[in-house]
Amino acid sequence: MAGHHHSIEGLTPQLLERKTSGNAAPFYLLNGAALLKNVKKGDVITLEDVDLSEIEAYKIYIKGSELK
User: Which pLDDT belongs to residue 9?
Assistant: First the structure.
């Protein structure tokens, strides 16, 4: 992630409603994440598409998700 506007080269962030976003990966978790499979241009990147196991923010995201 770089710059004031938090951009990741080659990605376009989208604002999705949580209740309809399915398993879309939150944009802020993708910085530094490795793709596990090819994603077509324009497709939403899901949590299954990326390796987030070493991303500290992902660990926090999971803990927060468990608070529901």
Answer: 78
